[in-house]
Write a structure and sequence with these properties.
The protein is an alpha+beta fold. It contains 6 helices and 6 strands; from the N terminus they run βββαβββααααα. It is elongated and about 75 Å long.
Length: 185
């Protein structure tokens, strides 16, 4: 017997099975159009998909999911625990909700389409990983640091330093050149 879940949206509709992609079903709310996806079902689906291309940086295309009614943590439709909100990418930024206890993910209206359009639909497990989330935090910290440096020293100065750093990276005697610069030669 299948378990019946209710959406946590204002309508509290019963979630009904719907295909997100051929061979992948999720429970969907008829009112808010969100999807309640079991990660076990997702993993089985991915196992039958072609290998995705690796991507170092996550920049989703201009396609942006519909804004969630509430941009805050929500309760799991199954166990009622608060779900963890995890970022997908840097720009545009949107978050997926995961219940670690139930091993399910909530996708707001348009989020699955945005993942698919960006070629990330098969990489949902990777997106939810600690490593992916750490990369996003590190990239944000680097961007903040660069913005502070640009504010303090100006764009022209930082651009010139970046040009010099790129040039130094190609030099076989990089350390010697840096020592010459430090010494005032």
């Amino acid at each position: 017997m299948a378990t019946t879940y209710r959406c946590v949206c204002a309508a509290a509709s019963i979630l009904r099975p719907e295909a997100l992609a051929p061979g992948l079903s999720a429970d969907t709310c008829g009112d808010c159009h969100g999807h309640w996806l079991a990660m076990d079902d997702f993993r089985r689906w991915v196992a039958n998909q072609p290998e995705p291309a690796a991507a170092d940086d996550v920049d989703l295309p201009a396609l942006r999911p519909a804004p969630a009614a509430e941009d805050k943590a929500r309760a799991c439709p199954s166990c009622q625990r608060w779900m963890e909100r995890l970022r997908v990418g840097r720009s545009p930024d949107f978050r997926l909700d995961r219940c670690s206890a139930c091993q399910r993910v909530w996708l707001d209206d348009g989020e699955w389409a945005a993942l698919a359009a960006a070629g990330l639909a098969t990489r949902l497990g990777e997106i939810l990983s600690d490593g992916w989330q750490r990369q996003l935090r590190d990239a944000d910290a680097q961007a903040r640091r660069e913005a502070e440096l640009r504010a303090r020293h100006g764009d022209a100065c930082i651009d010139e330093l970046a040009r010099m750093r790129a040039w130094l990276a190609t030099q076989p005697q990089r350390e010697t050149l840096l020592a010459l610069l430090r010494s005032g030669w």
